[in-house]
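Q: What changes when phosphoenolpyruvate is included in the input?
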Amino acid sequence: MRKKIVAGNWKMNLNLGEGYTLVAEILSKLPSLSESQQVIIAPPFLHTQQTITQTQYTPFVSVASQTCHHETSGAFTGEISATMLKDAGVRYTLVGHSERRAFNSEDNALLAKKTSAALDAGIDVIFCCGESLDIRDAEQQNDYVAQQLKESLFHLDAKAMSNIVIAYEPIWAIGTGRTASAQQAQDMHQHIRSVLVAQYGQEVAQNTSILYGGSCKASNAAELFAGEDVDGGLIGGAALVADDFIGIIKAMIAAK
Ligand code: PEP
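A: The predicted holo structure follows.
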């Protein structure tokens, strides 16, 4: 079943007390969700246990990590494996966020390994893709995103793909206040779905949730989520303010 999803990526923000207060406020204002809707919170690793404890009895609310290591265990100082995250109760992990690609030199090949490590551990993957402004200006975005999917996901079989969510996040729209237009988002989401059809067939493609990310706010979420192939959003800045995040969740619930 294709789910509508709003996922909040806190990045490296909020201390434990602030995180606790934010989650408590979100939960107190959360509209009721159905089986086909998911709210996901991706706090910094340090918050993981606390956020899981806070959300554990709220249906259709899950905790994600912002990344995971590609190995199960070993001499990787400072890293956290997918098996550890699974053991702690983490349900999803982001893989391939543009900030990880840029600041931690994560390339498509490494992201393929991280994706497999997460799935092997039983964690679903929110795979982030998206082009830079240069690539958009050169009108190469469709090929570029297709290549990201091919090199990081297409080693998976159709069954494994049912545990993948794709987040299209044009880099030029992340944290910049510059949003892709609803038409630009829909066009790319349709393209991504057509790439999935070519690789895996209609059933897998139609069941894959594709989220939009990049300066999505309560004020523009309804317009963005109206796109036929837009199944919700991956939210950065607006996920740090309860009322803003709730507004986006309400837009997701109201969409189509
Ligand atoms: C993100 O970092 O995934 C993101 C979409 O950020 P923002 O909403 O702040 O643009």
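Observations recorded in class: The first strand starts at residue 4 and ends at 9.
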